[in-house]
Fold:
Amino acid sequence: MTSNKIDLGFTRYLSPDGRLLGPLPDWADDFNLLTRLYRQMVLTRLFDQKAVALQRTGRIGTYAPTLGQEAIGVAIGSLMRPEDVLIPYYRDTAVQLMRGVRMEEILLYWGGDERGSDYAEPAVAQDFPLCVPIATQALHACGVASAFKIRGEHRVAVTTCGDGATSKGDFLEALNVAGAWQLPVVFVINNNQWAISVPRRIQCGAPTLAQKAIGAGFHGEQVDGNDILAVYDRIQVALERARHGKGPVLLECLSYRLGDHTTADDATRYRSAEEVKQAWQEEPIKRLQSFMAAQGVWDEGREQALITECQALVQQSVDNFEAAGTQAPESVMDHVYAKWPAVLADQREDFLERVARRQGGQDHE
Ligand SMILES: [Mg+2]
Structure:
């Protein structure tokens, strides 16, 4: 049997237990940077745990945990410039936080509140809201990148998706147009091995997802998505390439979804405890922590201080979220259209009447 694998490159600097496997790029000598990346991964994980707890107690709606994929988002968010635009998918807590989206805004979003997509931080004001439909965001990113190219701006559109999204027509159409027009767009696949209950091995016949870029005429490669040094390095190169007119890049980050698909899923029904236990041996936070401890720049005292600091920040965001109150029910319609279509006027009227009856205590349907 012939192999269909194309050698695209695979980058990893740290072994799963945090040992250095070869020479690091010069930037990795900056321990302030490593500490910042580590801190942000820890903050993301603590926030993520809190978001799941808030869903379990009925205070937010369905939430998509980012557990195990913190390195990918933190690396992306730390390297994008304020003028770049993020076109994210629904499992992007890590990159949103690193970009400057506030934790309470993320809670508002998952709490069904439109204010959760109206980011206060100027650096992220042009970032797109989370995209729940699978892979459609990849096409939106190509639209954004086309605008940058037409205007001659040195900006990059960065879009993310899961492994399952790469099977969608929208994703393949996006790759095609990105290659045909040589757009300044970076596609990042969070290959977490599962598309809800469908494992990667039966999702797609190609040995790598990165090689889908080859058919579209541009560069693709794989990286260890649990090694933040590797992800940081390759995202940096990809962004520079796109920013300077050298075309799009597809980066497949190999990771593992340690949590359920969402809080509406129970992953124990379709994958083994052994598999998940093995995946925990490779997770990104412990890996960087082990490396930093071996370098003598991290210890238990710093760890405890960091956790205390991050827990306080998370709790403050929960307080801010709960103090925000609720929006009027009709806010669900406010941002669907620039101008509400006449053909849907009856539906809007009917909805408003029902809301008024309910608020007046006359409707118990
Ligand atoms: Mg997946």
In short: The mean pLDDT is 96.
